[in-house]
Amino acid sequence: MKITVYGAEVQCASCVGAPSSTETYEWLQSALGRKYPERHFEFEYIDFETVDDEIAEAIKQDEWFYPLVLLDGEVVDEGVVQLRKVYAAIDQK
């Protein structure tokens, strides 16, 4: 399973007080490793300000909040990421 986190160095304006994108990325690696020790996850962090793809463009156009978490290319959660949503998406696979 591939977990992709789109984020940026600057925190989302509506996410003040929440973990940064990189903190969310690191937190997910740790939490998922503990919860699912038998599963292999591939993790990728993408700074949406430095790439030109459809998802990055959607974030730039305020269609998504960041950090934006994807599981195998499907959006799982955005903004203030909640583990229960990520766990539920993984459990459904």
Explain what the structure shows.
The chain is an alpha+beta fold. 34% of the residues lie in helices and 23% in strands. Strands 2-1-3-4 form a 4-stranded mixed sheet, sandwiched between helices. The radius of gyration is 13 Å and the shape is globular. The mean pLDDT is 93.
What is the H/E string? EHEHEEH
Strand order of the largest sheet: 2-1-3-4
Quickly count the helices: 3
- Main pleated sheet: 4 strands, mixed
| N-to-C span | 9 Å
Mean pLDDT: 93
- The number of E-state strands comes to 4
Strand content: 15-25%
Q: What global shape is seen? A: globular
Features:
93 residues; alpha+beta; 4-stranded mixed β-sheet; 3 helices; globular
Task: Describe the protein's topology.
Elements: E1 2-7, H1 21-35, E2 42-47, H2 54-60, E3 68-71, E4 74-78, H3 83-92
Parallel strand pairs: 1-2
Antiparallel strand pairs: 1-3, 3-4
